[in-house]
Amino acid sequence: MYHIIFVRPAKKEIAELPPAVKRRVLNDIRNLRCNPRPQRATKLRQRPGYRFSRGDFRIIYQIDNAKQIVYIYLVRARDSVYQKKARLG
Q1: How much is the pTM?
Q2: Residue of 31, 34, 36, 20 lying closest to 71 (CA atoms)
Q3: pLDDT at 8
Q4: φ, ψ for residue 27 (rounded to 5)?
Q5: Which H or E element spans position 6?
Q6: Residue boundaries of the structural domains of the chain
Q7: Averaged in consecutive runs of 10 residues, what is the pLDDT profile of the chain (89 residues)?
Q8: Residue 56 contacts by C-beta under 8 Å, 6 or more apart in sequence?
Q9: Distance CA 66, CA 78 (A)
C-alpha cells in the first residue's frame, strides 16, 4: 500500500474547496493508496506525473514506486491547473 504525501500548495487548495467537492477529492486521493494508477488517470506529457479529474477539478500527482509514495502536488480547477505558473514542487 502506498503512502500519500500532500505538498504544501495541494494542502491549501484542498482546504479551500467546497465541502462536497473536498469529500469527493479526498476519497479519490485515498483510493490512490491501493491503486496509484487508476483507469481514469492519465500520464502527463509536458512534465512527470499523472492527473485525473474529479468534476471540474484536476488532481496532479507523482508516484515514487521505490518508496511507495504518492505525492499530491495540485488540486485545481481545470482551467487553471495547466498554466505555466502551476509548476510541480
Answers
A1: 0.85
A2: 36
A3: 87
A4: -65, -45
A5: strand 3-6
A6: 3-80
A7: 94 92 94 94 91 90 96 88 55
A8: 77, 78
A9: 30
What is the Cα–Cα distance from 1 to 45, expressed in whole angstroms? 26
Superfamily of segment(s) 3-80: RelE-like (3.30.2310.20)
Say if CB 54 and CB 25 are below 8 A apart.
yes
Would you say 63 and 89 are in contact if contact means Cβ atoms under 8 Å apart? Answer: no
| Pairwise CA distance, residues 82 & 48, whole Å | 13
Which residues are bridge partners to 54 per DSSP? 57
Pairing between β-strand 42-43 and β-strand 3-6 as defined by DSSP bridges: unpaired
Report pLDDT for 75: 93
